[in-house]
Amino acid sequence: MWALDQPCAPRAERLLADTPLALLVVLAVGAAVAMLLVEVSMLPAHAVRVVGVTAGQGALLATALAWASVSPASSVVAIALLGLAATASAVAAPGAAAYLAPALWISWLAARGQLDSLGLGTPVSLRAVATGALAGAGLSIHLLVSASRTLGVQVRVDHASEILSAIAYDVGANVLAAECFFRGALFNRAARRWPFAIAATVATAAYVLRYLVDPLLPKSPELVAGAVFYLALLGAINCWLLAWSQSLVPGVVSATLFFAAYRTLGPR
């Protein structure tokens, strides 16, 4: 009788359940082999960036899709599109337009209702999108002002093609993979287990760490400290946007605006 009287609370899934380990191992081994071939001059130097984007962003995106119970074939398609886009971008700057392909693929999966658990494809209000835009714009303005005053950089638009290529990369790879995994997948899972503050801390710490290990990030102490501050703030804001709106779209808008502002910074 006691068992009948007591409510049965379903157990939350393990935080890392359904991680596609086999696919991640393939990506890691493929990246290691490609980098070795670059070292022995069997592949061109730009292959390192192609491999880095394909393996790094592909691993994040594939894991997010796996946690959303999307078929492995869809994850492979996403990785292949990232690889093709990275290759096209390495060949010529206009090739960065190919980064629209992964974004369109994810949009198609969302439209079919396969990414609801990530906060994509669910209804989102104009107010929520506007709030995300305001958050991203405010953080961008603060970045541009403070960076120009303290880090010896300034806003530069004299290399417009490079800036546009970088923004395309953010839209179809950097922001897309990070928001899908760190907010849509990791934060959502953590929030089902712990209070908001703990879940946001876990997701944001992992988000910041992802950029700190990025070999493309400048390693001067000032720039690293600035990156930690802004990325932690962006991560926390986007966790709140997702929890508040129940949609990943406002966070994607926020992060896209922030990185677009970051891409305009250059040495004086």
Residue runs with pLDDT of under 50 for 5 or more positions: none
Estimated share of beta-strand residues: under 5%
Q: Based on CA inertia axes, which overall geometry fits? A: globular
Number of helices: 10
* Number of separate strands: 2
Order of helices and strands: HHHHHHEHHHHE
Number of domains: 2
The spatial strand order of the largest sheet comes to 1-2
Mean pLDDT, nearest integer?
A: 90
Q: Pairing-aware structural class of the strands and helices?
A: mainly alpha
What radius of gyration results from the CA coordinates?
A: 19 Å
Q: How many angstroms does the end-to-end distance come to?
A: 75 Å
- Largest beta-sheet details: 2 strands, antiparallel
Helix proportion of residues, in percent?
A: over 70%
List the helices and strands and how they pair.
Layout: H1 2-5, H2 21-39, H3 47-67, H4 72-91, H5 100-111, H6 126-150, E1 153-155, H7 160-191, H8 196-212, H9 221-245, H10 249-263, E2 265-267
Antiparallel strand pairs: 1-2
